[in-house]
Amino acid sequence: MTTKEKVLARLKAAEEILSGEALAQELGVSRTAIWKAIKELEKKGYQIQHLANGYRYQPSDILDAKEIQEHINQAVDVTVLETSDSTMKDAQLAVMEGKKSPLLIVADMQKAPRGRFNRPFFAAKQQGIYMSLLLEPKEQLQELPQYTILMAVAVAEAIDELLGVESQIKWVNDIYLNHRKVVGILSEAMTDVETNSLKYIIIGMGINFSIPQEIYPEELREKATSLFSDGKATTTRNQLIINIWNRFFDLLAEQTTYLDSYRKKSFVLGKKITFKRKDQLYLGTAVAITDIGELVVDLGDEKVTLSSGEISLSSIQ
User: Fold this and answer.
1) pLDDT (tens digit, 9 = 90+) per residue, 179-209?
2) pTM (predicted TM-score)
3) Residues 234, 235, 236, 237: is their CA dihedral positive or negative?
4) CA 104 distance to own-chain centroid
5) Which of 8, 169, 235, 287 has the smallest CB count inside 10 Å?
6) Before 102, cis peptide (omega within 30)?
7) What is the pLDDT of residues 201-235, one digit of tens each?
8) In the predicted model, is pLDDT for residue 253 greater than 70?
9) How far apart are CA 213 and CA 230, in angstroms?
């Protein structure tokens, strides 16, 4: 560990105020080295209180790979990037480089974020969570939608637990709060051609954490929001990331309860929806979600089943 990392770890662990002299003696370095380490940490965004008798760590919303990795109840390698074009692409590259899974890649900023149907979404440095998990599930190809559903439930429940709110899920993979989108989720499969089975799955998401409402592009202000749109976060991004993946792995182990939760949290069921299929516009009522995540729509004269990969809902009433 570097002096900077040692100072940070010691400050985080301490309940008392630590003087520069005490830190220097404990770590076997000069007081000047301690002062430089404190300044480097502050440049990275860590909040450290300077008092007459020493230093005290203040809760800081800085992405920390070690903190995340230590608190996820599953063996997961965690990488934190200052910026990324796409964490989904980073995960794909990790496969080609032979890196082990599960691997979680988290970025402080994503330059070219994309969602379903290659749609762009808005990102902001240090105010969002942009991450992808690389898994090696060895499941049949038709099981892919289940991971998207399970992930949506894990994210929604983690948010509810940590913030004390009631989030909702828009079929198939968007999380909403107060009728505005706060999370988008995307799953991609990498298959074994010979066996037609999933070799790897990559689950990515973008979470609007503390982006102020006024800095969203004008066309998105009525459609999107953040978990803390006033900028006054009551938790950290690290804690939310930890909660999300702990919930995900718990649900993955249970394999029983997430579909019920998904249906309860759906704000699509029972609503009039419009969608396009093969360039034709349809209007119907969403009446059910199947056990593999398909949406059943009653058109009046017939019922149709929609898969997440072929359509996008254009309106919900």
Assistant:
1) 899 999 998 888 777 777 778 899 999 999 9
2) 0.86
3) negative
4) 10
5) 287
6) yes
7) 999 999 999 999 888 888 888 889 999 988 788 89
8) yes
9) 7
